[in-house]
């Protein structure tokens, strides 16, 4: 395959959790305005040529999005090309049929651009909110994923599990024009989850949010081996990692540190982590999974991760706690207009034939 074709096959997206941002005077922006800002960020992502816009689902005060499909529908009405999906949908505390119906509806109103990334979620607020036992964390996900997978053929479903009434020859509507909704499995580093994605023949999204990205190569290789063992054709692998773009390396680090630390320390306090120091922040930028800097710096690091893991899509999580909407808009613009073309150049160079 020609080197340009190899580079062009890679897709580039952005993800957000709808983090509650801060106004210039330091006050939190109200949830309704944050949601409107997320829509504008999605519209910009389409305008600068990105391939995917993902919105996470949370049920807590510091993230404004609890219904990603509704936000994505608003973006769908103002965009033409970009694919729109969740990042992630917490399937364990939702109903698989309702999730399927919502995203099949999004697929219709967006002319076939809907995707859904299913996961267990790293936050657990949805379990008590919707009346689920957190002690059944694994069992709930396993069963609900099995039902969701059964719906993808868009044929009558007969199915039985332990957490809901059985289905007998049941059709689920609406159907999609393509005949199959695009569904990914989000994985944070569990080999069992990687094999599960292969077993259900679903593309894999690796959430790499800390440490050297190369440590996830065994998971990517495991997924490819598992697909082969299940006699399934190769399927895409995506990476989800945090990052931030500014005109210079110094500016990017200076603008991101405080909001990133605020978000990291708030979550860390809930989970027993010590506060993040500047050294840890700098180490993640230099050696870890934080893609921060000028377009050239981020492009070089991103291309290296794509080459190392052999992935098909890179989704940059561009929101970071109270980081201002204006800063995120500029970051998205730099990512689409400067980083993505440069990464494609670097990947094409990697595959260029050697002249003898």
Q: Biggest sheet: strands side by side, in what order?
A: 1-2-3-5-8-9-10-12
Task: Assign the CATH architecture.
Answer: Alpha-Beta Barrel
The description of the largest β-sheet is: 8 strands, parallel, barrel
Shape: globular
Under CATH, the topology can be stated as: TIM Barrel
Rg over CA atoms: 20 Å
Task: Report mean pLDDT, rounded to a whole number.
Answer: 95
Distance between the termini: 19 Å
Work out the count of structural domains: 1
Task: Classify the secondary structure makeup into a structural class.
Answer: alpha/beta
Describe the structure.
With 356 residues, the chain is an alpha/beta fold. The chain has a single domain (3-129, 180-350), classed as Luciferase-like domain (TIM Barrel), CATH 3.20.20. 46% of the residues lie in helices and 16% in strands. The chain contains twelve helices and twelve strands. The strands form two sheets. It has an eight-stranded parallel barrel, surrounded by seven helices. The protein has a two-stranded antiparallel ribbon with strand order 6-7. Strand 4, helix 4 (96-109) and strand 5 form a beta-alpha-beta unit. The model has no long low-confidence stretch (mean pLDDT 95). InterPro entries: Bact_Lucif_Oxidored, LLM_Atu2307-like, Luciferase-like_dom, Luciferase-like_sf.
Short description:
InterPro entries: Bact_Lucif_Oxidored, LLM_Atu2307-like, Luciferase-like_dom, Luciferase-like_sf. This protein has 356 residues and is an alpha/beta fold.
